[in-house]
Write a structure and sequence with these properties.
five-stranded antiparallel β-sheet; alpha+beta
Length: about 200
């Protein structure tokens, strides 16, 4: 017999044993972002965030949003993806059981609840934009070469700043696919240096 809490939920994952690939566009659409960007986005959103899925295997975090509330044509952000039903193919999202927490690789970072379900796209998108600027820095001007695959990318991610005593500092870029493979300490160092510079300018 369903509990009153279950009855109050607008939707719950059908599988209670394992992650299940569910179609977007049936109950909800979804927006994904790299987890470091999502960390800051969640700080900015506070109680305005709905339920959130975190996938530590791929370093992605997902918000559930209303169907057809936004399309990729209305906005474009680095490493942020809108998952929605396409005319010629379906799109699936791995959804964990409602009870799964951080002891699993894929889990509900913000659990589903009667007041925690879909996130308002009008609040989420500005928070994501601000988080991207703060975590990744301003968007690079134009295409850059990825340090790993050596191919040009339209979504370059700054992963490190290399310094030399004789020449100006050089920023190392990666494409989205290889950004998370760069050593984490280098990413953290670049972010820390950027924050220190920003603090210095604001004083």
């Amino acid at each position: 017999m369903a509990t009153s809490t279950t009855q109050a939920l607008p939707w719950t994952p059908p599988n209670t044993e394992d992650v299940e690939a569910l179609p977007v566009g049936k109950w909800w659409d979804a927006i994904s972002a790299p987890t470091p960007v999502a960390d800051r986005t969640l700080e900015l959103l506070g109680r305005d965030s709905g339920a959130v899925i975190q996938d530590d295997t791929y370093g992605k975090t997902y918000w559930l949003v209303g169907i057809d509330t936004s399309t990729p044509r209305t906005w474009r952000m680095r490493q942020v993806r809108m998952l929605t039903e396409l005319a010629d193919e379906g799109t699936l999202l791995g959804v964990p059981p409602a009870s799964w927490g951080p002891e699993h690789q894929t889990y509900w970072r913000i659990p589903l609840g009667p007041d925690r379900y879909l996130t308002d796209i009008n609040r989420l998108v500005p928070a994501l934009r601000q988080a991207l600027d703060e975590v990744l820095g301003p968007a690079p001007d134009g295409r850059q070469l990825c340090y790993r695959c050596q191919l040009p990318t339209d979504e370059p991610v700054p992963v490190a700043v290399e310094h030399s005593g004789s020449v100006a500092s050089t920023t190392v870029y990666a494409c989205p696919a290889h950004a998370r493979d760069y050593p984490r300490d280098a990413v953290a160092q670049a972010a820390a240096m950027r924050r220190a510079l920003d603090r210095g300018r604001s004083r």
